[in-house]
C-alpha cells in the first residue's frame, strides 16, 4: 500500500518535471521562433514628400518626422531614400532657418543637424520614384540614391502630399495613379526586391491608393477613406503656415514612445489617430499580408534588425605589404601656372576644331557635282586634270 | 571544450606578437591644419572664414599602385580622384551674394548656387564621359542635385580658370566648368561636408559649425578645393592638398541685435574647448588692423594686396583656454572711418521690357586712381537666350574699348550654352560697360520646370583680374604662411590675382498655358460627342411606335384569352 503510494508520488513528480521541462523548451522555442519569425535581415525606408511651395510646409514636416523616428530606431542613412520636393528649412520665408518644426511650441526640430536628403527639388518626379522602387536607374547613379534591397528586406514606404481618388500629385505638375503604384510593387515582387512591405500614405482620400494592390506581403495604412479629406493639425502664426498633418502628428507621438526593443505590434499602429482626433477615418489593408498583424512588431519596419551571432573562432590576419619608396624620377623644379598670362592669351591661336569626316549630305552633294562634271565633259579629260 | 579555447587563445596571442614584430608603421606623410579668420566689417557685420587643409604625400594617378590606406584624407574623395583621373577639383556651394562694396573682398570668392570646375589629367581620353560620371558621384557625396549638370550648362573656358596647382600643361580641352545658380544650400549639404574632416564636428574648430546659426546669415559658402602642391621648399615633387573652406557673414541686425559687439558664442552659440588632436596647427586670427587690441600675440600677413595685422590665438597651447577650459573671443569696435574702396567691382542686370527681347549689361568698376589693368570676363549663357552678338559693345568712359582677345562659341539648341570670353583693359578710375541684346526662346512644354513663373536663373559672370597691389606680394610660395593668404599663387610682386563674381540673373521666359492640353481634350470630346453623336443618331436611329400600357381589366382579359388560345384584344 505504502509502496503504491510512493510509486504514485514518484510518478507525479516525474510527470511534473517532464511538464516543466517541456514548457521551458516551448517557451524558449517560441522565443527563438519569434526571434527569427519575421524572416527579414535588413530594413529599408523610402520616404517621399511630393509637394512644392511654402504653403505645403506641413508635408515636408510629415516626412521629416517619420525620417527622424526611423533613424532613431536604428535604420542608417545608407538604407533610407529621402525625397523632398522643396526646401523648407533654408527657404527664405522661414523665420528660423535650418529648422522644421512639428508643433507650434517649437520644441522638436524634426530637421535636425544630421540629415541627408537623397532626392531634392526638381529631382522628385514620378519617374525617379518608380525607378527607385524598381531599381531601374541609370548606371551612374550613386549608391545613396538607390534602393538596394533584396528578398530578405523589409521596406517602409511613406508618401505624403496632395492626393485624390486614385492618384497622388507630384510637384503640382504630374500625378501617379494607384494602378501604376500597384504595378511597381508587383515588379518589385517579381524581382524579389522585398520580403515584406509597409505602405503608409497621408493624403486626402488616401485609401484609394492601396485599393489596387495585388502583390503578396504588403500591408497598407492610409490617413483617410475615399471621399474624405485629411486635415492638418494646427497653424503657427509665427511661421505662418500649418506645421503638420493630423495623422502624422499622432503617428509621431505614437512612435516617440517606441524604442528599439519595444514589443508593440501593428494592431497598436492601426489604432493611431481615431476619428475623434483625426476627423477623417484612417484605414488599413492587411489581406495581402501573410502573417497576423498582431504578431508583427513595429520595429520590424520602423527599426533596424540587429541580429548578432557571437563566434569564438580566430581569424588569421595577413602581414601588410611593405610600402615601397617612390623613385624620384624627375628632379627639376615644378612651378605654379600663371593665372592670367595676358601676353599668351592675346597671341593664343584659335582653338583647333576637331576634324570630323564629312557627313552624308556633303558627300552626296560633292558626288553629284562630280557626276555632272564628268558626264558633261567625259572621262577622257581625266588625264588632263591629274 | 575548455582545452580548445585555451589553444585558440594561445594561437591568437602568438599571431599578434608576430604581427607587431614584422610591422613598423612608417612615419605619417599627411598633415592637417585648421584655422579661422575673423574680420570685422565696416557695416557692422562680421566675417568668419574657416579653412581646413589636409596635405598628403601620395600619388593617386600613379599607374599600377592603388592607394588603399587613408588616414586623414577622406576616402570618398580619394577614390573619386583616382577613378576619374582628376588633376584639380573645385566645388563650392553658396547661399547669398557677396556684397563687395559693403564687405570688401572675400578670401575665397564663390558665386551663388553651386559651382564646379575640374581639370582632368592629360591621359584621359573621354573627358565628357568622365565629367558626367564625376558630377553624378559628387551629387551623391554632397547630397546636391549636381546630376543636373549636363552639356547644356557645361562650358570649356579657353583662357579663364587656369589650374591653381602645380603643373605646366594647360591644354584647355581638359577643363570643364559648370554652375547651377538655383542650387539650394542647407544642412543636408553641410552634414557630408563636415564628415570629410578628420575630426568631424566633434573637436577643433568644426564644433562651431551648427547649422541653425550658420544658415541664419547674409552669406554662407562652403567649398572643397583639391589640387597638387609642392611637397617641400625644393618643389621637386608634388603632394595633394585638400582645402575645405567655409565663409560666413553674420548680419548686424538679424544676428547681432544691432550692436557692433560680437563674440564666438553670439555668432555660433558655442565656445571652443580644444583643438583637433589630429591637427598639427590650429589657430584663430582676428583682424585688428583698424582697431588695435590688447593681445600681445600679433602677426602680420599680406593678403589681397594689403598688409593686415592679426592677433593670433593658438589652440594647441593649453594657456589659450584659461581656467574655464573654454575660449570665447569678444570683439567690439566703433568703425567710423570709411572702408578702402575695393579696386575691382562688377554688377550685372537685365534691361528691357516684355517677354520677347532684353539686354544684358555688365558694369566693371576700376577704382584705382592711376593704374589700368586687364580683366578676363567669362560669360556662360543658356541656349534659350538667343544672343545677338553683333550688338555686343564694350564702352569705357563713353568711348569704345576694343577687347584684345575675344573667344565666342555660339550655342546649339538643347545641346550647348553660349560661351563668351573677353580680355578687356580697364582704364583707371572708370566704369566699363559690356552690353549685348538677346531674344527669349519658347521652350517645349515638357521642358518647363514645375514652377516656370518663378523665372530661369542665369549663372554669374566670372571676372578674373591681375590687380595692382598696395604692398609687395610674397612670391615665395613654400614659406610657412597662414592658409588664408596662400590660396592663389602669386608670380610677381606688384600685382595679385583676384576673381570677382557678378549677380546671377533671373529671366522670365514666355510660358504657355499649361491647362491647354486638358482644355483641348475637353473641348474636342464635347464637340465630337454633341456634333458627331447627334448626326450619327439621326442617321441610324429607328423609331418604333410604342403602345401605351393597357388598363388592369384589359390586361386580365388578355391573360384569360391567351389561356383560351383566342386572339388578344
UniProtKB/TrEMBL annotation, chain A:
<comment type="similarity">
    <text>Belongs to the peptidase C13 family.</text>
</comment>
<dbReference type="InterPro" id="IPR001096">
    <property type="entry name" value="Peptidase_C13"/>
</dbReference>
<dbReference type="GO" id="GO:0006508">
    <property type="term" value="P:proteolysis"/>
</dbReference>
<dbReference type="GO" id="GO:0016255">
    <property type="term" value="P:attachment of GPI anchor to protein"/>
</dbReference>
<keyword id="KW-0732">Signal</keyword>
<dbReference type="Pfam" id="PF01650">
    <property type="entry name" value="Peptidase_C13"/>
</dbReference>
<comment type="pathway">
    <text>Glycolipid biosynthesis; glycosylphosphatidylinositol-anchor biosynthesis.</text>
</comment>
<comment type="subunit">
    <text>Heteropentamer. Part of the GPI-anchor transamidase complex, consisting of PIGK, PIGT, PIGS, PIGU and GAA1. Interacts with GPAA1. Interacts with PIGT; this interaction, via a disulfide link, stabilizes the expression of GAA1 and PIGK and links them to PIGS.</text>
</comment>
<dbReference type="InterPro" id="IPR028361">
    <property type="entry name" value="GPI_transamidase"/>
</dbReference>
<keyword id="KW-0337">GPI-anchor biosynthesis</keyword>
<dbReference type="GO" id="GO:0042765">
    <property type="term" value="C:GPI-anchor transamidase complex"/>
</dbReference>
<dbReference type="GO" id="GO:0006506">
    <property type="term" value="P:GPI anchor biosynthetic process"/>
</dbReference>
<feature type="active site" description="Nucleophile">
    <location>
        <position position="204"/>
    </location>
</feature>
<dbReference type="GO" id="GO:0003923">
    <property type="term" value="F:GPI-anchor transamidase activity"/>
</dbReference>
<feature type="active site">
    <location>
        <position position="162"/>
    </location>
</feature>
<protein>
    <recommendedName>
        <fullName>GPI-anchor transamidase</fullName>
    </recommendedName>
</protein>
TrEMBL record, chain B:
<dbReference type="InterPro" id="IPR007245">
    <property type="entry name" value="PIG-T"/>
</dbReference>
<protein>
    <recommendedName>
        <fullName>Phosphatidylinositol glycan anchor biosynthesis, class T</fullName>
    </recommendedName>
</protein>
<dbReference type="Pfam" id="PF04113">
    <property type="entry name" value="Gpi16"/>
</dbReference>
<dbReference type="GO" id="GO:0042765">
    <property type="term" value="C:GPI-anchor transamidase complex"/>
</dbReference>
<dbReference type="GO" id="GO:0016255">
    <property type="term" value="P:attachment of GPI anchor to protein"/>
</dbReference>
